[in-house]
Amino acid sequence: TQLLEQSPQFLSIQEGENLTVYCNSSSVFSSLQWYRQEPGEGPVLLVTVVTGGEVKKLKRLTFQFGDARKDSSLHITAAQPGDTGLYLCAGAGTNSGGSNYKLTFGKGTLLTVNP
Amino acid sequence: NAGVTQTPKFRILKIGQSMTLQCTQDMNHNYMYWYRQDPGMGLKLIYYSVGAGITDKGEVPNGYNVSRSTTEDFPLRLELAAPSQTSVYFCASSYSGRGSTEAFFGQGTRLTVV
Question: What single DSSP character describes residue A99?
Fold first, then answer.
């Protein structure tokens, strides 16, 4: 059973546009991470959110954790070609008793930013 | 620091052959993981370890084995390779921060079974 659903699966936009990608679940997570993966590389952590309602900013990227800790969003302002990549969300610890050190990954959103 | 290092980066196996994917980390992390990534399918957990001498199955363990004799090393063994094991394999390690787990990944091993 896929616990984390990411949408959209693919997104192609022009440089300068804004975008939001979503990560949704029916499970509560103790924390949620966002990773970016570039072709031929492993995922690299962007941010961790822990508290329901938490908002974190990383330059042009804004991450939000839902109040109920079941969902998250990533908003990119004025996207640049360097933002191109696969964005993965991953949750740790569920209300079904999942271990806090085991991450469950979504399938990812493949973002292409065209110059 | 090198972080998480995986070898080899690429490998082609014939059906029925065996191989070991190597993974080592120099961050003194207790937790280590093996994932496989198939197109459009995200990352699936194969095996994980919470410390030297302790391993456990993830979502998709069939056809694989692991060992963890030291904190640094976590090799993944494929016995009797099958075409369904064609994938990109990632090793990761993590520490457990307060309320969170943050994983550091290697660059991956692209395996093709023909």
Answer: -
Which of B4, B96, B101 is the best mutation test for A, with the most CBs of A within 10 A?
Answer: B101
Residue pair A104/A90 in contact (Cβ under 8 Å)? The answer is yes
Q: What is the pLDDT of residues B69-105, one digit of tens each?
A: 999 999 999 999 999 999 999 999 998 655 567 889 9
Contacts of B39 (CB under 8 A, 6+ apart): none
What backbone phi and psi angles, to 5 degrees, belong to B98?
Answer: -65, 110
Per residue in A33-46, pLDDT tens? 999 999 889 999 99
Whether residues A31 and B108 touch (CB distance < 8 A) is answered with no
Whether A44 and chain B come into contact, CB under 8 Å, resolves to yes
DSSP labels for chain B?
---EEEE-SEEEE-TT--EEEEEEESS--SEEEEEEE-TTS-EEEEEEEEETTEEEE-S--TTEEE--SSSSB--EEE-S--GGG-EEEEEEEEEEETTEEEEEE---EEEEE-
CB count within 10 Å of CB A49 equals: 22
Question: Residues 95..114 of A with a Cβ closer than 8 Å to B: which?
Answer: 100-108
Nearest CA distance, A19 vs chain B (angstrom) = 20
